[in-house]
Amino acid sequence: QVQLVESGGGLVQAGGSLRLSCTVSRNIFVIDTRGWYRQAPGKQRELVATITSGGSTTYADSVKGRFTISGDNAKNTVYLQMTSLKPEDTAVYYCNQASTRYGMAYWGKGTLVTVSS
Questions:
Q1: What is the arrangement of strands in the sheet containing 4-7, beginning at the earlier edge strand?
Q2: Is there a contact between 33 and 97 (Cβ–Cβ < 8 Å)?
Q3: How far is it, in rounded angstroms, from Cα 77 to Cα 71?
Q4: Which pLDDT band, with edges at 50, 70 and 90, does 95 fall under?
Q5: What is the mean pLDDT of the chain?
Q6: How far apart, in Å, do the first and last CA atoms of the chain sit?
């Protein structure tokens, strides 16, 4: 069974930085898209950023210029560098790794990011 393991969450003051990491328990050769989503209390889960195996990235407007997603295809690992954090970035951040070709998607259990004002 494939498991995604996230790390790097925590408590940080506004303006600070955190780096999230997500890796898989075993290599998955068909993954072509990796991403981060987040869910704040009382809100729906939303896309934060994605990166394809070719390196194309997308970002939510709310994080553009502050967050950077990167990935390592060989290690099935994806990172999210978060800078200039704001209290509204507080949420549980979920890693997603998917194969759009085969219709497969894997989710992590989430890591909590709390930004204090």
A1: 4-7, 18-24, 77-82, 67-72
A2: yes
A3: 6
A4: very high
A5: 94
A6: 40
| Contact indicator for 63, 49 with CB cutoff of 8 Å | yes
Q: Which two tokens stand for residue 53?
A: 């195996």
Q: What pLDDT score does 97 carry?
A: 94
Structure-block tokens of residue 17: 């930085």
Within 5-106, where are the H helices? none
- Tokens 């939510």 sit at which residue? 60
Residue 28 has pLDDT above 80, yes or no: no
Tens-digit pLDDT profile for residues 40-94: 999 999 999 999 999 999 999 999 999 999 999 888 899 999 999 999 999 999 9
Per the rule left: phi > 0, alpha: psi between -120 and 50, beta: everything else, 76 is left
Residue 85, SS3 per DSSP: coil
Q: Give the C-alpha separation, 86 to 89, whole Å.
A: 5
